[in-house]
Specification:
binds pyridoxal-5'-phosphate
């Protein structure tokens, strides 16, 4: 068995039922993705529009591409037809722009709201308050071509496991609050996406339904 296949097998053996694995393949060569595919992996996460567009035609049609990086509005057009889920919707402006483009191509775009829970200023995303404001303003009914399937979070870049766990708990808490306040009649609002390689086990413990794992599967990225 290839190293990549072994790594996938190991990660999968730790995932409870109902938790899916997003193999984060950004900066990895197409051969590595093909190895993962041969091992049965179907969901791949990419973070750059250009890379996604180049890789997609080189992989079989039944691959599910997830977009997990910061998405600039001028890249929506190229990402939307390919991505089955955009994890990283980090602003109202982006949400509206995705809705508009999805309407244009007759699609309903599946998205997650990226929550801001990390300590870094630079990380994108919504705070709990910002989410509340969005939905209290009746945003949902204005976006018929967007399906908000849940939330996504990036933890602070730190070795402090307690801090990571705290942030994952917060992601889960915001998810539950949004669910009961705004999505109680929407069963598709069910996904909690957390990363990354070093912390996927904590993510599972804290309620992730999707774990984003890159280097633990593919090795160090080849920039
Ligand atoms: C790169 C990336 C990951 C995976 O990181 P690893 O440490 O390689 O597992 C997860 N989530 C996001 C949003 C990423 O950009």
């Amino acid at each position: 068995m290839s190293q990549i296949a072994e790594n996938i097998k190991e990660v999968l053996s730790k995932l409870p039922n109902g938790v899916s694995l997003v193999a984060v393949s950004k900066f990895h060569p197409i051969e590595s993705l093909k190895e993962a595919y041969s091992a049965g992996q179907r969901i791949f996460g990419e973070s750059r529009a250009q890379e996604l567009v180049v890789k997609q035609p080189q992989m079989p049609d039944d691959v599910e591409w997830h977009f997990i990086g910061h998405l600039q509005t001028n890249k929506i057009k190229s990402v939307l037809p390919i991505a089955s889920l955009i994890h990283s919707v980090d602003s109202e402006n982006l949400l509206r722009a995705i809705n508009a483009e999805a309407a244009k191509i007759g699609k309903v775009a599946n998205v997650l709201l990226e929550l801001h829970v990390a300590k870094e200023e630079s990380k994108f995303g919504f705070t709990a308050d910002a989410c509340k404001r969005l939905f209290d303003d009746g945003l949902l009914s204005q976006l018929p071509n967007v399906k908000i399937c849940g939330v996504m979070g990036m933890a602070t870049n730190t070795d402090d496991e307690d801090e990571i766990r705290k942030e994952f708990k917060l992601i889960q808490l915001i998810f539950e609050a949004l669910k009961s306040n705004y999505f109680s009649d929407k069963p598709y609002f069910r996904e909690v996406s957390m990363g990354m390689s070093d912390y996927y086990l904590i993510a599972i413990e804290e309620g992730a339904t999707m774990v984003r794992v890159g280097s633990h599967i593919f090795g160090p990225r080849q920039y």
